[in-house]
Amino acid sequence: MDKQIQYYSDFYINANGKNAPAVIRNYDKNDFEQLIQIQAECFPPPFPSDLWWNEEQLMSHIQHFPAGALCIEVDGELAGSLTGLMIKFDPNHPEHTWEEVTDNGYIRTHDSQGDTLYIVDISVKPKFRKLGLGKLLMEAMYHVVIQLNLKRLLGGGRMPGYHRLADTLSPEEYIEEVVSGNVKDPVISFLLRCGRKPITICKNYLEDNESLNYGVLMEWKNPFI
Ligand SMILES: CC(C)(COP(=O)(O)OP(=O)(O)OC[C@H]1O[C@@H](n2cnc3c(N)ncnc32)[C@H](O)[C@@H]1OP(=O)(O)O)[C@@H](O)C(=O)NCCC(=O)NCCS
């Protein structure tokens, strides 16, 4: 299964009534500076800046699993990125931390014999949000899952709206409310709209004050398997 694939898709994005040319493609060395800038804009304080990508991590992504290193460009400007690795996933032991699975974002844990594409990060620059770019990136990664004949796409979603309701709701109750549509969470509602379904809640998933360090493991199954 060591098949390496390249992704390239160009189309138009409608932003403020105008159509702009857009491309989803694999990222490479020339994109690193802009990718780190995207992280800085997407994860401002109190999010720890040492969790933003550094060049060494980005280099490791394109060395270990270039097929899982995707970015989206709008009118020549990098607007967002989505990064993954392959793992063997055991549904009977779903609990883990982001650091364990992603090797702290370096993805040296990438297993080319794995059955699951695991999302390390998705980020879209604030000025390009709510245009559907995040969903398009996720759909591009579904294409990669199908192309590589993997069972599923998986990843832990932050639940940044939870700190506002943590006094009254347990993490499980919060997710139930988000799934039923009564509460909107900036990340979990987005992942639901992308077709991802919650499997379990992971404690101490990632250092993230807004989510009280919780993450929700969310799956999309390859419809052909
Ligand atoms: C989560 C994130 C990647 C979403 O990116 P995005 O490009 O804004 O995603 P989309 O535009 O596809 O969807 C976002 C929302 O915009 C809405 N939307 C999409 N196209 C739209 C349009 N043309 N007009 C109005 N709304 C639109 C979607 O319905 C969606 O609503 P939802 O919140 O109910 O799901 C982005 O908010 C982000 O980078 N957040 C910070 C980083 C982060 O927390 N990443 C997740 C780590 S687990």
Word description of this protein:
- It is a single chain.
- The chain has helices spanning 32-42, 55-64, 98-102, 133-147, 162-165, 171-180, 188-193, and strands at 8-15, 18-26, 69-74, 77-87, 116-124, 152-158, 197-202, 215-221.
- By secondary structure, the protein is α+β, with helices and mostly antiparallel strands.
- The chain has an 8-stranded mixed beta sheet with strand order 1-2-3-4-5-6-8-7, with helices on both faces.
- Strand 3 (69-74) and strand 4 form a beta hairpin.
- Bound molecules: coenzyme A.
The gyration radius over C-alpha positions equals 17 Å
Query: What class, by secondary structure content?
Result: alpha+beta
Q: pLDDT under 50 segments (min length 5)?
A: none
Strand content: 25-35%
- Small molecules in complex: coenzyme A
In N-to-C order, the SSE pattern is EEHHEEHEHEHHHEE
Strand tally: 8
Residue share in helix: 25-40%
**CA-CA gap between termini:** 16 Å
The side-by-side strand order for the widest beta sheet comes to 1-2-3-4-5-6-8-7
Task: Sketch the major β-sheet.
Answer: 8 strands, mixed
Q: What spatial form do the alpha-carbon principal axes imply?
A: globular
